[in-house]
Amino acid sequence: MSVNDRVINIDELALEHQKQGERFETRAARVGPRVGARDLGYSFDVVPPGKTACPFHSHRAEEEMFFIVRGTGLLRYGSQTRAIRAGDVICCPTGGPETAHQIVNDSDAPLEYLSVSTMMPAEICEYPDSGKIAAFGGGVRHIARPDQCLDYWDGESPPPAAQP
């Protein structure tokens, strides 16, 4: 890749519209692949007023950072909330419910932010609002609730008998 392929302006991104129900909506672009990123994921989101891009969640393997480009909103982080605005840098390290996070546009104008995350081969996410746990990696994408958990030995049988 040339140096020109390593730079992209957010105003030139082709944003894809994503919507789920009445609460979740964004126009977003995955930037990392476009600039040749290998170990970090980059995304740019534009969230309309009154919406959020994703559920309240925490990561066990991947760390995330957000940079607020334009607008204002609300950061949910663990059991706390705080106002956020253009220029803010937000760190979301790995952990459990105490590091769960979500950016909400509680304003009357679009909220734009850049997210950067480590790209791990496997990830576990927890969703405190809905009680879900998700496992991602190696082609596996599994989302369940803890009460749907199987025992470690479920379905295992004894090894075949040795042949004389």
Automatic annotation (TrEMBL):
InterPro entries for the chain: Cupin_2, GPI/OXD, RmlC-like_jellyroll, RmlC_Cupin_sf
UniProt entry keywords in alphabetical sequence: Metal-binding
SUPFAM superfamilies: RmlC-like cupins
Superkingdom: Bacteria
Ranges where the Cupin type-2 domain occurs: 46-116
Any Pfam family hit: Cupin_2
Metal-binding among keywords: yes
Keyword Protein biosynthesis listed: no
Protein name: Cupin domain-containing protein
Annotated organism of origin: Ramlibacter aquaticus
